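From: lab user (bench 3)
To: helpdesk
Subject: output format question, protein + D-xylitol-5-phosphate

Hello, I'm new to running complex predictions and I'm not sure whether the block I got back is the full result or only part of it. Here's what I submitted:
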Amino acid sequence: MANGRRRLRLAPSLLSADFGALGDAVRAAEAGGADALHLDVMDGHFVPNISFGPALVAAVRARTRLPLDVHLMITDPLRYLEPFQKAGGDTLVFHIESGSDPKEVVRRARALGVAVGGAVKPETPLASLDPIFDELDQVLVMSVHPGFSGQEFLPDVVPKIRAARARIDRDGRATDLSVDGGVTASTGRVAAEAGARFFVCGNAVFAGGDVAGNLRRLRAAVEEGGGG
Ligand code: DX5
Ligand code: ZN
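Helpdesk reply: Thanks, we reran it on our side. This is the complete output you should expect:
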């Protein structure tokens, strides 16, 4: 099967959930058909915001069977791979713009037995992933400037999604291609058309409270764009 036709998956980002009722948000996302959960770790250095660390990932791990994608928006991911693996992360996504040696991050993640993703900020070219592209389980294209949920999707990243899709398909790899930031029914459809197969959605899932309905609408939209 061409990778481009892999099943589309939705990963609600807990950053947009009510932190005072996180267990409820996790349950609602799982019951509503989420395929994974996305956990945004921010250190106040790599991005201007601070969110949470391994203890919260562990608390989420204890409440769901869904795969946990941990998005490390931190300056020294290498140092924190093990704590997040121990906390229950299934995929650890690090930024190519972070200070750590990317090959070393991939090697260490493999040694820890977790899947590894490489993320690029909106202004970072896809080619910056070249040294590790073939070793990644997931390529994450950021469609907002990392730091906050609830921002608008930046359409300039669409050609980058398309280029990543073309490269993954050309090489016949099973690499996940995810898009993160400002994904709504309409922008999700655009990203799906460009070849994204994994959709991180924060506000579009948790705003308004109808998590199952929001997930249903998002799924219908991306399937329309991605051919189902
Ligand atoms: C931004 C985070 C995103 C964000 C998604 O730095 O990486 O995962 O929380 O939230 P929305 O979908 O609201 O942009
Ligand atoms: Zn994220």
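A quick orientation on your result: The CA atoms of residues 155 and 196 lie 13 Å apart. Let us know if anything else is unclear.
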